Amino acid sequence: MHQYAAFLRGIMPTNPNMRGEKLRGVFEGLGFAKVSTLLASGNVVFRSDDTNVPALESKIQQALTAELGIPGGTLIRTRAQLQALVDSDPYAGLTHGRETYLTVTFVREHPKSIPDFPEGSPVRVVRYDKPAAALLTVIDNTDPSTTGFMQTIEKAWGKDMTTRTYLTVQKALKKMDA
Question: What SUPFAM superfamilies does the record point to (predicted)?
């Protein structure tokens, strides 16, 4: 079986339909094995014999919309993609904390260009990781202008993406091995 992590867009932890047991139930109902949720923000690890990731994304999103009313988007990464990303040590010497966020923005399709953050922006692009289809950034969270981060990415790439902290990506990878 193949190991996957699904990162769901538009999850609100306060909505009871989006909590672990309901999300897990949708995935288990689709026949996936070793389903486990991570945090209350739309992260699900699971196993499947299927290797067609776009078909899996579509199947999951249809079920989430039909069963839980979650209209966002589903982006899946394989265990190998996440392991390669973590092994590349993209944030060498940096620590995620209250003042500095290390973020990973997963996209469905490779972009033609990297979003243009304005001069003096609290966002620093580390790199675009092609194997994981992910933009790696560092956000200075002490700057109140960080609220424009998602708008800048959406303007450049549309809404078919989702952002997680690097810590969440690392936790998803560990959960796959549990």
Answer: SP0830-like (SSF160379)
